[in-house]
Every structure is written in structure tokens, then in C-alpha cells.
Design goal:
Structural class: mainly beta
Strand content: 35-45%
Distance between the termini: 12 Å
Helix content: under 10%
Number of strands: 44
Radius of gyration: 21 Å
Number of helices: 3
Largest sheet: 12 strands, parallel
Shape: elongated
Length: 427
């Protein structure tokens, strides 16, 4: 995640009339000033009972999380991290909420009945013990907007326990039922299921939303993602669905611009193949109606792998009508054990009834091993890795990221985390 290195003069993210609370990791006061800073939990509890908008200015640094904080907030809320604590306005870094690999049900769960803003925050290293298996869950009421910028949701993983128990993996962020969700300059890295085994029914999660959108899952919320990176997430499932990024339900009108979806790994064991489960892919689009629209512009899907059965590796469109422009799909690997006749294309797949048009997009080839036959391709470009893919991706590093042999640890997988972050570092 890119850090903000500037002094910003703010007139309050929520405008005049908002209550400002100051938060520090060692806070013991009432939050009325940096000298009387309060804790993050106490500030959120105050916001939950407030009758006016509340802005939390959170001092930069690490906040070790010992329990999930869950609140319902009736008024607009802004959580703004990265403050130096030296004055009212200077933001010089990032605020990290770190679960430190603790077994928690999550880090933050906010139900917003007013607008919700989240800036300059990281949510890291949570190990789930029970549903909903999301490090951060944000749910909006009707007519409420969500804005997220310069945030990271990374290293949140379910570790080799239980499995095949009808429960889910661990995702970075779950967003539901907002009028609109705007997410910019944010990272979703190395979330999901980490285990030593890679196949077999007893080594997979299943059921409901189990492995869907393990970096970011957006459900019933039209979203706009700009300059976001979804990388190094592992999604593993049996007779279910899985993806690193999922946009689902009543999310028509969603747009992705200048996003990089790279180095994600999917594994699916489909012993019950006759049930026609959606399967897995790095990026899943499954909108409520076939006519609901989505757009991808200047995006990169590369080096994503799917290791089993009849599923695509890159983009899978299950329901919706989409336009993809000026985007690059490269070295996505659909390496399943299905017969050649049943294998899905590696780069872009659209289910019967979905409508997708691609123009001025780069793929290794235009055949059905890369793009499904029902996808309309116009002015396609083909060939080896163009090298100019995206300023969000260091492709020398990405090419060295062998997603079929990543060092998934049964503990914290530090090598994997480092490799994925290096692979998508800003250039």
C-alpha cells in the first residue's frame, strides 16, 4: 500500500458539526485532544451512541487487536488513520490494526446507517475462529455510501484446522448492501486458506460464502475500484465457489479501473461435479441479473493459477453484461485435471447467458483455451508478456512468483507474504 507522505490541511472529512475524537494505541482519556486521546474501541462505542457525525483521527503506528470490535452507527462515521499526533491535521504514515495471528472472529465489524469513510488503515494477520470469517465486515443501510482509500487488508488466513467442516476461509474485507462503495489505492494481499495439503475432500472448506472473495467480497453494493491490488490470495474449496475478488448480487454498475489482480492461487476438489457448482477463478462476477452491467478498464489479470477441475484461472463471469477495455490478461494458468474437452479458458470465461465484450485487450492468444467462445473480442492483441502491463506491478518480480509452489506455511507463511508484496510493489 502506498503511504501518504504529506501534511494535509483538513476541514473535517464530515464537514462542520461533526464531533472529532482523537485515538492513540496508549490512549486513556476522553478523546477530546491528542493529550487526552482515547482507545479505538472506546471511540467507536462513543460513535455508536452519537447523535451527530463522528470523525476518528487515529494516530499512526501499530494497534494490537485482542478482540473484534462490532458496532452499529446511526450517524456518518469517518475513521482516518496515519496522524502523527503532533497537531490537528498532519498525516504522515499508516495506522495498523494487527491481530498478531490471534484466533479471533474478526478485527472490525461496522453496520453503518449513515455514510462510512475509512482512510489510511491496515487490518492484518487475523486467524478466524467462527463465522463470518472476515477480518473486516462493513454493512450499509439503504442509501448509505462507503468510501475506502489507502487501506490494506492482508495476511488474514485460516490455518489448516477443521477443514471440510462446512465453514469458510478467511477474507480480508466483506462489503455488503451499500448504495455505492468507492475503494481506491488499497491492497488485498495474502488472505485465504493456508494448509499443507492441496487436494482431497477432507482438506477443503465448503458451504455458502466459504471461499468467495477472499481478498475482497462485494455483495449487493455497486462498487468502483481504482488502483487497487489483489494479490497472493489462496482460495480452496470443495463443491463450492472460490475467488480472490468477488462482485456479486445487486452490484450492477460496478467499475474497476487500473487494478492489478495477480498471483492468486485457487484449488478446487469437485468430487460432486454433477451439482454444477460455480467453481473458482481469481475474479468472480456473479450479478443478480443477466442485464446488470460491469466495466473493467486498464486492468491487469496475470499469473493467477487454478490447479484443479473445470474452472477458469483469471476472470469468471457467471451472470452479468460486461465491457472490458484496454486490459491485459497474461500467464493465467487453468491447470486442472479435467479432460481437454471440459477445461475452461485460462483468461476470461463467461457462462452461457452472460454477455462480455473485450476491446483492445492483450491475451496470450484468442483461442478458446484463453477466452471462451461466447466472449466478443475486438481489436485483440496477442503475444508474450508485453512488459508495460501496469505501473502497479513490478513484472520482474511477478514472473518469479511461481504460484504453484508458493511456500504456504501452516503457521504465518511469512515467506509467501513477503513474496507477494514484493511482486506487486509500486514502481
Amino acid at each position: 500500500m502506498k503511504q501518504l507522505l504529506f501534511a494535509a490541511l483538513l476541514v473535517g472529512a464530515l464537514g462542520a458539526g461533526a464531533t472529532t475524537l482523537y485515538v492513540a494505541s496508549d490512549g486513556t482519556g476522553d478523546g477530546s485532544s491528542w493529550e487526552s486521546a482515547t482507545t479505538f474501541k472506546a471511540a467507536l462505542e462513543t460513535a455508536a451512541s452519537a447523535e451527530e457525525p463522528v470523525e476518528l483521527r487515529v494516530k499512526q503506528g501499530q494497534y494490537i487487536v485482542a478482540e473484534k470490535i462490532a458496532v452499529t452507527v446511526s450517524q456518518p462515521l469517518a475513521i482516518l488513520g496515519g496522524y502523527t499526533g503532533e497537531d490537528e491535521t498532519t498525516q504522515g504514515g499508516v495506522t495498523s490494526f494487527d491481530a498478531n495471528f490471534a484466533a479471533l472472529t474478526g478485527i472490525l465489524d461496522v453496520t453503518a446507517k449513515g455514510g462510512l469513510t475509512l482512510e489510511n488503515c491496515q487490518f492484518l494477520n487475523c486467524r478466524p475462529t467462527d463465522a463470518p470469517y472476515s477480518a473486516v465486515s462493513l454493512t450499509g443501510a439503504a442509501g448509505v455510501d462507503l468510501s475506502i482509500s489507502n487501506c490494506a487488508f492482508s495476511g488474514n488466513q485460516r490455518i489448516n484446522s477443521g477443514l471440510n467442516d462446512g465453514k469458510g476461509s478467511m477474507r480480508g474485507l466483506m462489503v455488503q448492501t451499500f448504495q455505492k462503495a468507492t475503494i481506491t489505492d488499497s491492497d488485498f494481499l495474502c488472505n485465504g486458506l493456508v494448509q499443507s495439503a492441496s487436494s482431497g475432500v477432507n482438506n477443503h472448506v465448503m458451504k455458502d460464502w466459504g471461499a468467495r472473495g477472499l481478498g475482497l467480497c462485494v455483495n449487493n453494493a455497486p462498487c468502483e475500484l481504482t488502483r487497487c491490488r489483489i494479490a497472493g490470495n489462496k482460495f480452496q474449496c470443495h463443491c463450492s465457489n472460490g475467488s480472490a475478488l468477488a462482485i456479486c448480487g445487486s452490484s450492477g454498475g460496478s467499475v474497476l479501473r487500473n487494478c492489478a489482480i495477480v498471483g492468486n492461487l485457487g484449488v478446487r476438489s469437485d468430487a460432486d461435479a454433477g451439482k454444477n457448482w460455480p467453481g473458482i477463478c481469481a475474479f468472480e462476477i456473479n450479478l443478480a441479473n443477466a442485464n446488470d452491467k460491469f466495466t473493467l478498464e486498464n486492468c491487469t489479470l496475470a499469473y493467477n493459477s487454478n490447479l484443479e477441475y473445470t474452472c477458469p484461472a483469471g476472470l469468471g463471469v457467471y451472470k452479468g453484461t460486461g465491457t472490458i477495455r484496454n486490459s491485459i490478461f497474461y500467464a493465467n494458468i487453468a491447470a486442472g485435471s479435467a479432460s481437454e474437452a471440459n477445461k475452461q479458458p485460462a483468461d476470461v470465461w463467461a457462462q452461457t447467458g452472460a454477455a462480455v465484450e473485450m476491446s483492445y485487450c492483450w491475451t496470450v492468444g484468442t483461442g478458446t483455451e484463453f477466452v471462451s467462445a461466447n466472449v466478443v473480442q475486438d481489436h485483440s492483441l496477442t503475444g508474450e508478456d508485453p512488459g508495460f502491463v501496469s505501473t502497479l506491478v513490478d513484472y520482474n518480480a511477478v514472473q518469479n512468483l511461481n504460484v504453484t509452489k508458493l511456500p504456504y506455511s501452516t503457521q504465518t507463511s511469512p515467506n509467501f507474504k513477503t513474496s507477494a508484496e514484493d511482486a506487486v510493489k509500486a514502481t
